[in-house]
Specification:
28 helices, Four Helix Bundle (Hemerythrin (Met), subunit A), Calcium-transporting ATPase, cytoplasmic domain N, elongated, Calcium-transporting ATPase, cytoplasmic transduction domain A
Length: 762
Amino acid sequence: MRRFATIALLGVTATGLLAGLILHLAGAEAAGDIVWAAVTGVALVPATGWVISALRSGRLGVDAIAVLALAGALAVREYLAGALIGVMLATGRALEDYALRRARHDLNALYERAPHSARRYEDGMPRLVPVDQVCPGDLLSIPSGEIVPVDGLVAGDLALLDESALTGESIPVEHTAGEAVRSGVVNAGAAFDLRATRTAADSTYAGVVALARQTETDSAPVVRLADRFAAWFLPATLLLAAAAWSLSGEPVRAVAVLVVATPCPLLLAAPAAIASGLSRTARHGVVVKGGGALERLGQARTLILDKTGTLTAGRPQVVDVVAAPGARADDVLRLAAAVDQMSSHVLAAAIVDAARTHRAALPQPAEVREKPGTGTTGVVEGHRIEVGKAVASSCLEWERAQRARAALDGAMTVWVTVDGQATGVILLRDAIRADAARTLRRLRSAGIERMVMLTGDRAEVAESVGIVLGVDQVLAEQTPAAKVRAVRQEAARAVTVMVGDGINDAPALAAADVGVAMGARGSAASAQAADVVLTTDRLDRLADAMDVARRSRRIAVQSAATGMVLSLLAMAAAAAGALAPAAGALLQEAIDITVIVNALRALRPVRGTRAVVDPATEALLRRFETEHSTLRPPLELIRETADELGETPSAASLDRLREVHGFLTERLLPHERAEEQRLYPAMGQVLGSPEATVTMSRAHAEIERLVRRLGNHLALAEADGVRAEQLDDLRACLYGLHAVLLLHFDQEEEAYFSLTVGSSAE
């Protein structure tokens, strides 16, 4: 409604000003003055309302000067000046409404997700009843894919639940008989029975909804930039106008002072710059819900980030395949993927994707059976394959070692057995986004002083991610209520940005000064609760948006300050009698145009903290990035070969060494040399100095040295076989190569290849 009123006011005042001008040019000056007086009166009504509204909220804004100028113009019959002020006010209000209109924190998706019914057992059969009728002690049936309606205990053997809505953790969690289950989670396995322990109103998910409503109502509107100057500008203007009238005895001078003091530079410059910033962020795939959110984003000093789906990919990935003694990792992955290609489980999909990445030929399985919470079995190439939980085997020491490693790495284990014997284990982890580290560094460069990672995930997993990314604090195992408390504590100290993507993040997003939702894959609730939505699944866009926000705010303040200085000079001239009200209004219009043109500089692209990559270098980056993806999997062959070097090397050991050396000399070293000759010089130009690639070149030299040393060992072994005295140094060489290559690949992907993520931002 307000929007249409503002547009109508602009239309009436602009039309009236033009009509009065036409009448004056036609010689009907009296009629023209009447029209201008009417325009002044029309503008005076809403302007007075704005002042009254501001007074009711406990503040007196600079709109009061406009009211006095309009009233004064009518009193001294300076109707043209009044009409000009009316048009300027209407224009400023229209721009302000466009630039600073905030989207409501509409959390409908969060509310609508709440279950409305439950399947309660009555006479031994599950019957659909309203969820409000469920009482503690009732036995409920939870079909596959449905949301758990109330808090309760697992009454069956096992429940496999997707708890991402509450914890943000992407990997389903198993709950055995008697374990507690919270409402709002999704049954990701077979149907199970639940014994209700609370009513729907008292359950976990109802608390999340109530929390979201509370934090939504706690949000306060942003005070306009112009009002921040009112504390000193308004009294100064009134004193100068009174002094001009008192000293000269001419009330028209006071009106002239008020006319040129009408704060249109403030009313127009800030909205124009902010509106330009909003347009700029949209080109980066960032929707900012209003100028207030953009302005606060430019002031942010603290950043809180959810882990799963924000700093990590949100999808589990295979990070390693460990073969049992006597088995090969390639065979373990191939057999597991052959069985899992018939499963819809999220971990099965990750295993199949990894096998396809390795270009493994997957045989067709037979007799495939899937037991939720346990795994999948099938017959492949005449062997019974089991993929899932570990089974009893003779490799207890090896299994314990793998469990310990998984715990240290924060990884999930999927065990593979062949004909009842443990053959290997597949480790999966939710990988850190390739652009996460670079984006966090950019955000620090943009002014973020403190970074906190907030997650419902386990502490050891969260800490491992936090250490890699260098955040200042990690808060793990956080409930939605705890997340809101943490956000509010940070917001009490500094302007705080919260980034998340799940339904469980919606209350925290609404509680932050600026909520940012990963809208591409995140929930509708988080997107609606947020002030900023990243429409592409790219964290680097947040850094782009912050660059734009800070620049837009800087231009807005600069434009307003410039306009104020010019207005003060004009006020002095008006007080001295050098400016009539109408001339002052025209001068003020010229000042307005000046500051608006300056404010529109915010539309121009800005490099900010993002490195600009030219098309030729980007093509090189993408080429070598693709090569990295094909070279990474065979790196595990180096470690596996070192693992298999026993105290008495066999002919097979020599074959593996030949295979490793062939991979290194025929595929990996040519890749590294091409990087050194083509990519690194180009990156030196992009990053501003050839010194930027020195550490990477040093890694290349170390890789070359270790490959040459391995070649020397192989040459000795070709004559007499692998000798016992070679083993220690040979293992050290292989393990060293594996470690250096993994670190080098990670560094290149973070420092260089992540640039391709943001290279096409414009």
